[in-house]
Specification:
The strands form eight sheets. The protein has a seven-stranded mixed β-sheet with strand order 5-4-17-16-15-6-7, covered by helices on one side. Strands 23-27-24-26-25-28 form a six-stranded mixed barrel. The protein has a four-stranded parallel β-sheet with strand order 11-10-9-13. It folds into four domains: 6-58, 2-Layer Sandwich (Phosphorylase Kinase, domain 1), CATH 3.30.200.210; 67-129 and 356-456 and 464-575, 3-Layer(aba) Sandwich (Rossmann fold); 141-335 and 602-614, 3-Layer(aba) Sandwich (Dimethylsulfoxide Reductase, domain 2); 623-750, Barwin-like endoglucanases (Beta Barrel), CATH 2.40.40. It is α/β, with parallel strands linked by helices and 751 residues long. The longest helix is centred in the C-terminal third of the chain and has 17 residues, at 498-514. The chain has 27 helices and 28 strands. The N and C termini lie far apart (57 Å). 58% of the residues are buried. Strand 25 (672-676) and strand 26 form a beta hairpin.
């Protein structure tokens, strides 16, 4: 007899859009997935990733038990055996007391889980290492460095008010494929159409005619890596033509009088050749931006993963300030999240400001930022002898042997590791080389709340999802795995009391609230705060505390919260399966600032100093081909290539090349090309298209699933090639250390 199906609701955790899902479930099987029409944010919108979450959950390749390497093979083991194996290998590595002999790499799925966002801090603290790497430094790090320098913290990012703007300038971003990135916004196609329908304008600057460019009013191809030159020319035009109008912002901004002199050498005429954009077009774009009733400048991964990533990220918000569009309706605004947002707690309007470079990498000397160092340095930190050499590495939800620069060199470096531990759902190109693999629950077997992405949302909302399905037997929740591993690295042995460590985490979060000005828990005893949360444990207990003490919170232990119209707690969210709408973005200056001056720092000295490097590149030789990446709606992470629904259809791992370049190079349509950089070479299918500008070729990121030992059946049947064999780990943004993945010099020939 077939079990009767029921409908359960959840927030999709597979990308930044946070779409609501309605899942039809029969027993422990997902029968159907559709968009939740009643979700307060997404209103029924769904993309192929969300629609495939049932396939992901049921994938037979998902790891079902801990694995330990014995006689060269990974074999099933108990949790106790797995932790005993880690302890045995770790002991001689840490015997001399060098805690930096261990390192950790965090993949971007951690930003989509409560477990990762709450408990990774404890794991890192337990390891006690400065060798902390993540996907941040192959992604958005320059934007965070620029915004922290201007506004005080790394997640104080101005977000386009797309629902109200009259003019949107988009650089190096393809939100119709990404569903928004550093801009949590379901149904970006609908939102861009709405801008045009109400008489507004959308302008895209990108080397490719992307899906987003196709629906825009204008598309301007630009030479990869030259966005900062173009943005500086826009600033130059606005200043020299006296179009600057910061309005009420002026009293909150330091450096307005300096900006004209700073960009004096970047006129549209001076940079036209290096950008590939006519000077008069640049001037017109600047004039229209300044004249629009409201406008938002938005840039993403094409501008951050390049050699001038921090400068480009900074100049985006310089433009938003100069045109008076920072912190106002229809411009770019600061979300007010319900939980976990540092710029929403304590006394606002001033703070310690941002400091980076508190330590540097051992070999190359690249700076720390936000407690991490650039992953472009990982290989050399493993292979270079001396104190602090990484001998043991932990990877959490990450696949660095696919997704970081020069994976050929990094793979050879991994051969020198004495211990590799992976927390992962698959045996992928990285975890298949581990000594111990610790499995995780599927997204449908754990609760979910988007702590990170609600801080980047185009509307203030809150939505909690309890587990849709019961956890499968034999797999520990990820937060318990992290705490047990933290205890082991901290010296407590492989059999730590996880509940005791969980209490320590909750007490530390409570302690921070008790010393935070304006928190409902201010002045309380931390133990009293934790006791008031009742019987919950794990991430739900910490989330409840954050919600109760947040800007819309219900308060705690009889103390009233900070919310006016709402009183949020986890109980309230559990009673609202479609989420709670907290309203549109509202102005937050100056309270959102955490700079030492209490003002927006328009001209941070370290960033301004890097303009000399930008100026020196104006007349650089522009001959030769360069490589850029590209994003696909169905492919947010490499492990999604093991979901049949997301890889069906034509081969998407191809090299896009302009017809003129193809003819010049002798490349046949539907043929193959050999692509070579300083770092390595690949052979890739050719796709000739006028959607990409001359002098540029494009290969998507995340493919190359042909590693021996990996157990990803669908991905192995659609392996593609790994573009990161071509990415050069020596090419980084000088300010942030972020890897250069766009604008890589390459040679191309018929294969």
């Amino acid at each position: 007899m077939t079990e009767e199906s029921v409908t359960r609701f959840a927030t999709c955790p597979l990308c930044e859009a946070t779409c609501g899902l309605a899942l039809e479930v029969a027993g422990e099987e997902v029968v159907k997935v559709r968009g939740d029409a009643d979700d307060v944010f997404s209103r029924g919108f769904i993309c192929p990733k969300g629609a495939s979450i049932g396939e992901l959950h049921a994938d037979p390749d998902r790891i079902a038990t801990p694995l330990v390497r014995r006689d060269g093979e990974l074999v099933a083991a108990s949790w106790d055996e797995a932790f005993a194996a880690i302890a045995e290998k770790l002991e001689p590595i840490r015997a001399d007391g060098d805690r930096n002999s261990t390192g950790i790499y965090l993949g971007n799925p951690n930003a989509h889980t409560l477990d990762g966002l709450i408990y990774l801090r404890a794991l890192i603290k337990g390891m006690g290492t400065r060798n902390i790497f993540s996907a941040t430094s192959v992604d958005q790090l320059p934007k965070q460095v620029a915004c922290a320098s201007m506004f005080g913290t790394g997640l104080t990012l101005p977000i386009p008010d797309v629902d109200h703007t009259d003019h949107m300038l988009i650089l190096g971003a393809n939100p119709l494929a990404s569903n928004g990135s550093l801009m949590t916004a379901p149904d970006m196609r609908g939102k861009l159409r709405a801008i045009r329908k109400r008489g507004g304008k959308v302008v895209v600057v990108d080397p490719r005619r992307t899906r987003t460019a196709e629906v825009a009013d204008e598309h301007h191809p630009i030479r990869p890596g030259r966005d900062a030159h173009f943005l500086a020319a826009l600033v130059h035009t606005i200043v020299t033509e006296e179009l600057t109008d910061p309005g009420e912002l002026a009293g909150h901004v330091a450096g307005l009088d300096e900006i004209g002199e700073i960009v004096a050498g970047f006129s549209p005429e001076a940079v036209a050749a290096t950008c590939g954009i006519d000077a008069e077009d640049t001037r017109r774009i600047a004039r229209e931006l300044a004249a629009a009733p409201s406008a938002a400048v938005y840039a993403r991964i094409g501008t951050t993963t390049q050699e001038f990533g921090t400068l480009a990220s900074w100049l985006v918000d310089v433009l938003n300030v100069l045109t008076g569009n920072l912190d106002r309706r229809g411009g770019v605004m600061f979300p007010l999240a319900a939980a976990g947002q540092t710029n929403a707690n304590g006394a606002g309007g001033h703070g310690r400001g941002f400091e980076m470079g508190r330590w540097s990498t051992r070999v190359r000397g690249l700076p720390e930022a936000f407690g991490e160092v650039p992953v472009a340095c990982l290989a050399e930190e493993i292979t270079t002898p001396g104190e602090g050499r990484i001998r043991a590495l932990v990877t959490v939800a990450g696949n660095p042997l696919v997704s970081t620069p020069n994976v050929g060199r990094l793979g050879a470096a991994f051969d020198e590791l004495e211990l590799l531990v992976s927390i992962d759902c698959y045996l992928n190109e990285t975890s298949s080389r581990a000594d111990v693999v610790l499995p995780v629950l599927s997204p449908l077997e754990r609760s979910h709340y988007d702590l990170a992405f609600y801080q980047l949302s185009v509307r203030n909302i809150a939505n909690f999802s309890p587990p849709v399905l019961p956890p499968r037997a034999g797999i520990e929740p990820e937060w318990r795995t992290m705490l047990r591993l933290a205890g082991l690295f901290a010296g407590a042995g492989p059999d730590v009391d996880v509940d005791e460590f969980d209490d320590m985490v909750a007490l530390e979060v409570a302690r921070r609230e008790t010393v935070t000005e304006g928190s409902p828990a201010e002045g309380m005893d931390p133990a009293e705060v934790v006791a008031a949360l009742g019987e919950r444990r794990g991430p739900e207990r910490v989330l409840d505390l954050m919600l109760r003490c947040g800007p819309y919170g219900a308060g705690i232990a009889g103390r009233p919260g900070r919310g006016d119209d709402v009183a949020l707690s986890l109980d309230e969210l559990e009673d609202a399966p479609h989420g709670v709408d907290l309203g549109p973005l509202e102005p937050r200056l100056p309270g959102v600032l955490r700079t030492a001056s209490g003002k927006v720092e328009l001209c941070p000295p370290a960033i301004v100093a890097d303009l000399d490097r930008l100026a020196a590149a104006i007349d650089r030789d522009r001959d030769g081909l360069v490589l850029i990446g590209r994003r696909d709606l169905r492919s947010n992470n490499s492990w999604m290539h093991n979901v049949p629904h997301l890889v069906r259809g034509k081969d998407r791992c191809t090299m896009h090349v302009n017809p003129a370049d193809a003819e010049r190079l002798g490349l046949a349509p539907d043929g193959a090309a050999a692509v070579t950089s300083r770092a390595g070479s690949v052979v890739v299918p050719v796709e000739v298209t006028d959607a990409i500008m001359e002098g540029v070729v494009s290969i998507p990121h995340g493919w190359g699933h042909d590693a021996a030992g990996a157990r990803m059946t669908v991905a192995a049947g659609n392996p593609g090639v790994n573009s990161n064999l071509l990415a050069d780990e020596e090419l980084v943004d000088a300010l942030s250390g972020n890897a250069v993945l766009n604008g890589i010099p390459v040679a191309v020939a018929p294969a």
